[in-house]
Design a protein that fits this description.
Arc Repressor Mutant, subunit A, Four Helix Bundle (Hemerythrin (Met), subunit A), mainly alpha, 2 strands
Length: 251
């Protein structure tokens, strides 16, 4: 018996395979290895993770216990307690990555492809349709990203920036497509794959992308977006290589 109404046929949907807690472990280990959550960062609460992944809190609780016992997480009690990332890689991380990513590699390739098609269109359209209110929203989100003091603040600003650009198209279907693609690439956990090098690259590209959209340079905005949205793809491909796993079309 599964814990969600989705059939589980598509990788970004609710987790419904074998023992549910084991699948939660696979996804969280992969998320940490990708930098969705970084060392020292607090994970979302049990309730939040259950909602993100479409499973019960008891399954999340069991998975978190497994991850604590195996050294990936520290648990802290008290008012400011919770689960905190202790290690980004463990002796069985490669197995978790293989199950979470490589087994569904063809679907990841579709996501990479869709992003390279859709996000440049969104950037080009935003450059043609942006309003003063849109410009203010993009500029504020960019400033927040530049000034972000930690990973949590950075991920919130990154999400707000790309949402502001999508909303500048004034087409709710394009906005929904962008949001859906982000959900899929982030394993339904709300943050793009991350590294310090990726952030440094994104800082430059975010500035250039916003400038092109604000100034109405549509083709340039599209070209920047086409490159920018390969950052997460590269980190995922690098992780697959690190796991020593090969799937059809994988590195």
């Amino acid at each position: 018996m599964t814990e969600a109404g989705d059939s589980g046929a598509h990788w970004g949907g609710p987790i419904v395979a074998r023992h549910v807690a084991d699948d939660v472990v696979d996804r969280l280990v992969t998320a940490v290895a990708l930098g969705l959550y970084v060392t020292g960062q607090q994970l979302p609460t049990e309730r939040e993770l259950a909602a993100m992944l479409g499973v019960s809190r008891s399954s999340v609780r069991e998975a978190l216990k497994q991850l604590t016992d195996s050294g990936y997480l520290d648990v802290r009690r008290g008012r400011n307690g919770g689960y905190f990332v202790r290690a980004d890689w463990g002796p069985r991380s490669a197995e978790h990555v293989q199950r979470q990513i490589v087994a569904k590699w063809s679907e990841f390739l579709h996501i990479f492809d869709a992003r390279t098609l859709v996000e440049p269109l969104i950037a080009r359209t935003a450059a043609a349709r942006r309003t003063e209110a849109d410009i203010a929203a993009m500029t504020a989100a960019l400033a927040d990203y530049v000034a972000a003091p930690d990973h949590d603040a950075s991920r919130r600003a990154d999400s707000a920036l790309h949402l502001a650009i999508a909303e500048a198209t004034h087409n709710p279907i394009l906005v929904a497509m962008s949001v859906d693609l982000r959900a899929r690439i982030t394993l339904n956990l709300g943050a793009e794959p991350y590294s310090d090098e990726a952030r440094r690259t994104a800082l430059v590209q975010h500035h250039d992308l916003v400038a092109a959209v604000v100034e109405g340079r549509g083709e340039e905005a599209a070209a920047i977006a086409a490159v920018h949205f390969t950052i997460s793809e590269k980190l995922i491909r690098d992780l697959v290589a690190r796991a020593g796993a090969g799937g059809e079309g994988a590195p």
